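Inverse folding, one chain.
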């Protein structure tokens, strides 16, 4: 270490000692910005993106920009990103948390208003016609509003992460002074309603192929044939069924990858699947199968003798109960 390097090191250590005496340490911006950073890469599916971004903030505590100080003064990066109220950033921040997540997800203010007021935000959704009452079953990404005795406005807000087993799971800012998860029963009386933004979602490619298959080619009346189908980008399927060369039945909007169909009439059948999504559709090749009145229970074959010479004919006698 040369003389200049030793001198700089000495100055740095002296500054550290001075800061320590007064209980103040300089903040290193690179380290501070890493705490509760939004690490999610947007997909273009804003409904998913806002939820995933909110998840990166779980544990953030009010009291500092970094979210690592256990304060109780309502000071957060979400308020600083939004605006001052009466010259201060120290105000209740559940709605500004929603506004921050929306901004990070690329949701325009024409869908989620950049506001700190829960009443202002609810009125905004109502004016757009995107407000739903408590009897609505929410989707992931919807904005949920609660009654709250601890809020100045009387309301609290969060982001719906998912709904399962009759429970609504949420991510909420300013929940016990931090960003935290919460669960509430579907249709709970604590719920005021929901803001349901018109999120943008990527436009899917239309299906390029579709397949349909069955396990066997011969059935009897009263059996079920299980159609199995697949496609590359389909969200649902229509199954077309012909009998004896004529259109017979159509099964509309089938989801999943199989469908059990009851066979009630004998005939020669042909089936195909139409795979579709919002961008287009694709027909599969068809499959043929037969339906008989009843399946044979017994089949018998016999011959009149067991020994023959070259040039003789063998006469087979065949019988069945229903064939």
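Residues assigned per position:
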């Amino acid at each position: 270490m040369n003389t200049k390097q030793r001198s700089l090191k000495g100055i740095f250590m002296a500054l550290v000692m001075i800061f320590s005496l007064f209980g103040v340490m300089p903040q290193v911006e690179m380290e501070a910005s890493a705490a509760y950073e939004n690490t999610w890469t947007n997909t273009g599916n804003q409904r998913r993106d806002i939820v995933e971004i909110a998840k990166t903030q779980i544990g953030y505590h009010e009291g500092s920009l970094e979210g690592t100080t256990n304060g109780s003064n309502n000071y957060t990066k979400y308020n600083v990103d939004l605006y001052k109220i009466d010259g201060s950033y120290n105000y209740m921040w559940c709605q500004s948390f929603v506004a921050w997540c929306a901004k990070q997800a690329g949701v325009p203010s024409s869908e989620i208003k950049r506001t700190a007021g829960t009443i202002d935000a609810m009125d905004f959704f109502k004016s757009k016609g995107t407000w739903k009452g408590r009897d609505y079953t929410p989707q992931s990404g919807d904005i949920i509003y609660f009654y709250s005795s601890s809020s100045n406005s009387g309301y609290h807000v969060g982001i719906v992460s998912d709904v399962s087993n009759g429970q609504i799971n949420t991510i909420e800012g300013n929940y016990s002074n931090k960003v935290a998860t919460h669960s509430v029963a579907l249709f709970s009386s604590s719920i005021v309603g929901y803001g349901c933004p018109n999120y943008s979602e990527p436009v899917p490619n239309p299906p390029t192929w579709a397949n349909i298959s069955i396990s066997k080619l011969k059935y009897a009346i009263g059996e079920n044939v299980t159609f199995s189908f697949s496609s590359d980008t389909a969200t649902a399927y229509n199954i077309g069924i012909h009998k004896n060369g004529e259109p017979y039945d159509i099964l509309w909007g089938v989801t999943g990858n199989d469908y059990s169909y009851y066979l009630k009439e004998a005939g020669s059948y042909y089936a195909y699947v139409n795979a579709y999504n919002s961008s287009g559709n694709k027909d599969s090749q068809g499959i043929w199968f037969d339906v008989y009145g009843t399946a044979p229970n017994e089949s018998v074959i016999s011959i009149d003798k067991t020994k023959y010479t070259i040039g003789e004919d063998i006469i087979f006698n065949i019988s069945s109960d229903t064939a």
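The longest strand covers residues 267-277. The chain has a mean pLDDT of 88.
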